[in-house]
Design goal:
homodimer; 350 residues; alpha/beta; 434 Repressor (Amino-terminal Domain); Rossmann fold; 3 domains; 6-stranded parallel sheet; 12 helices; DNA-binding; LacI/GalR-like_sensor (chains A, B)
DNA sequence: CTGAAAGCGCTTACAG
DNA sequence: CTGAAAGCGCTTACAG
């Protein structure tokens, strides 16, 4: 064995190809292809020679050529409205983790508009990679992408809890945030609060209001015979939570608030602190997600832990299966949400 | 014009190729190639016919075939230790934004080990895409990737403020966090604090301690003739900040603490609150980054705003230039950090 | 200004 | 078990 072919090379000479390996091993490039693809019908001694040549030359199969010849690449493109908010970032982390373990490349493509040409362009670019696609479809751009995706495209989606059972064969996954919202709302009612106000994250549906999280909240109130206040329009971040908090702090009837996510809750807590409204003494506050900051706020935040990283891993697993077998897979929920009780919720006083 | 070739198609028939366009337009596929590449020497009428056929068939150039033929693809792979912590997530956001505007695909590859085979594998996979590479090199895995990258690889790095002027032609960018650390430390000293304690983020260097941020902090203390306390080992997240905070809260001599990032500061504030140490009454606390939560904590957090999204955009711009012209580019700092004064820092009392 | 030929590095039938 | 041929969809010289 020579010591020449240092993997990674000096950038000077071009990378070894399948033919270089073939001539080094004294076989045809076709046989090399069989070896690198683990094809069974290769004599052991031949295989050994080829493998030695591969190691010697530091050969790596060109993913590009492989993709062109096969018409399919080992990669996945994630279509997501953003990469920074907790749930999205964590889902992306889970996808990358699973993809890396399977030696898939992962591409990201931020989809921040639901205009048809924009969505079509994003889909076409994703399709152009020859890999699979994972759509994070919690908002209109994502839902639009699902609607506009061509039929044959290998595609998996993370969606909100479907209002009704999805069509069989829809490759969808979700966490049951409707049930989670119901649970946290019941917790609040159980503490003696007459009702629970809701600060909404932006929603998929035309009707607005945080869709399934709002639906679960509403269901719990209704089941308990509690009045259902108008949801307060929120957003994704602390600034919107702060705005909502200033509004709610003015109303002395408000004793319990559920926020559509922990970032909103952070801003809301700040607004309550400024207004001199004690949490949880006067008002209980709960969030959603169990984002990294939730446990360390003062007061620490009662919230619902959602396993977005697990959701991301499930998305990839589903897509991987779909890419291998081509068979449609059953939609299914993943990783049950869990209520985390902390300091920000307490019994109603007075 | 027929209405058949609906872009995106029905997944049924395969995508139109350059030859399909050619025969539809009555030219050779070579001429189609000229048109899609904006080659000047094509008769206007020919160009028009080809463009009509392209629109009609919904033709899109195969990125894969293009990459194979050219030996280079229009994509960038980001090598980063993680995708979720604020600075990394924001840098990634900036990269994606700039890349999308230039019609580049962006891939991500998390590099969480500095073991040589792991780093080589990540580099090889990135190189295999035929695109450029951006390394986020704030820690050992990233620095190792820079060391092991083959010479010819089109590569740009986001690095810590270099201790000495980097070799000319190093395609590096950074924010001047050393100067930023100096500035916030001076602010604290100016409030009357005898010294400033430092909770470190993990560092690149063997010596540990947050490298350039620590260096700036130390420089400011030394310049002021203040004692230099041993830095407290922190980490990336609130949990580590909490641990450090419990330790520092025990020492009554501690009146000012600088945290290597805002997530650490969050945990530290919690620890101080639990210990009954008033901020900023008894102790001043400052952070780094101006992460989204900083402005909404109680007390709100004095910090240094670092423009990571701008850093990400600068990385892509540099790489894009490098990919086009092949000329080496000068290393340079981007977006000056800015001190943001909030409630968590105040004059020393007693 | 335009076309015929060869090639990028693989894989997929088809022979033997 | 192994090789010669054709092809994936583009681009790059080379002719004309």
């Amino acid at each position: 064995m020579s010591v020449s072919g240092h993997a990674g090379g000096t950038g000077g000479r071009r990378a070894a190809s399948i033919r270089d390996v073939a001539s080094a091993a004294g076989v045809s490039h076709q046989t090399v292809s069989r070896v690198i693809n683990g094809h069974p019908s290769v004599r052991a001694s031949t295989r050994a020679r080829v493998e030695a040549a591969i190691a010697d030359l530091g050969f790596r199969r060109s993913a590009t050529a492989h993709a062109l010849a096969r018409g399919r690449s080992e990669s996945v493109t994630v279509l997501t409205p953003n990469t920074v908010h907790h749930g999205y970032a964590a889902a992306l982390q889970g996808i990358e983790e699973a993809a890396r373990a399977a030696s898939y490349m992962v591409g990201i493509s931020v989809l921040d508009s639901d205009r048809e040409p924009v969505v079509r362009e994003a889909l076409a670019r994703a399709a152009g990679t020859g890999g699979g696609v994972i759509v994070i479809a919690y908002d209109r751009p994502g839902v639009r992408a699902l609607e506009l995706a061509p039929a044959g495209m290998p595609l998996v989606a993370a969606v909100e809890t479907p209002a009704e059972p999805p069509p069989a064969g829809s490759p969808w996954v979700w966490t049951d945030d409707r049930e989670a919202a119901r649970e946290v709302t019941r917790h609040l009612l159980g503490l003696g609060h007459r009702t629970v106000h809701y600060v909404a994250i932006p929603s998929t549906t035309r009707t607005g209001g945080g869709a399934q999280r709002a639906a679960g909240w509403r269901a719990a109130l209704t089941a308990a015979g509690a009045p259902v206040p108008e949801p307060v329009a929120g957003g994704w971040g602390p600034a919107e939570g702060y705005t909502a908090g200033r509004e709610l702090a003015r109303d002395p009837a408000v004793t319990a608030v559920l926020c559509g996510n922990d970032a909103l809750a952070l801003g809301l807590l700040r607004a309550f602190a400024e207004a001199g409204r004690d949490v949880p003494g006067e008002v209980s506050v709960a969030g959603f997600d169990d984002a990294p900051h939730a446990a360390f706020l003062t007061p620490s935040l009662t919230t619902v832990r959602l396993d977005f990283a697990g959701l991301g891993r499930a998305c990839f697993a589903l897509l991987h299966g779909l890419l291998q077998q081509g068979e449609p897979v059953a939609p299914h929920p993943v990783a049950a949400p869990r209520l985390i009780l902390r300091e920000s919720t307490g019994p109603r006083r007075g």
